[in-house]
């Protein structure tokens, strides 16, 4: 039985799209700054993109989550082309769209189970896909230690995917969790 979810207000949509764009843009800039041989600063910010789309998906459904992802993508990639190397903007855009579509689709399929299962499984699967696509496009053929950065990035995304369950739960509220 499908549950009719309310469309976001204009303000909610703009807020979500701007949050998505800010996370992706910040991550595209921060990925250029290594913390060590295993990690860049972008790994710490990027998992919030999954949180944004999952919150929109939970409250307003997958079609609105995809709209937020599209708008966030367009704004972030356009800004990234100015503020980050083209290879990073292209890699980010490709990885972002494919991983967001996976995240949104998996989340929607699992939305009627336990409140934590949909965001956890969707984030973990999408993080693996995003990492594989982004790092292989953005840094393959460079002298940077991108394989170790990719492994460190994935480890952080997986850990943050688990850690972001608490803010997800707090932001959706107990009533919304019980309904979906």
Percent in helix: over 70%
Q: What oligomeric assembly is this protein in?
A: single chain
Low-confidence stretches: none
Number of helices: 8
Give the overall shape: globular
Structural class: mainly alpha
CATH class: Mainly Alpha
N-to-C span: 11 Å
The count of strands amounts to 2
Rg value: 16 Å
The tally of structural domains comes to: 1
Average pLDDT for all residues: 89
Throw out a few tags for this protein.
single chain, 180 residues, mainly alpha, Arp2/3 complex 21 kDa subunit ARPC3, 8 helices, 2 strands
Overview of the molecule:
The protein is mainly alpha-helical and 180 residues long. It is built from 8 helices and 2 strands. A hairpin with a 2-residue loop joins strand 1 (34-36) and strand 2 (39-40). The radius of gyration is 16 Å and the shape is globular. It starts with 9 loop residues before the first helix and ends with a helix. 40% of the residues are buried.
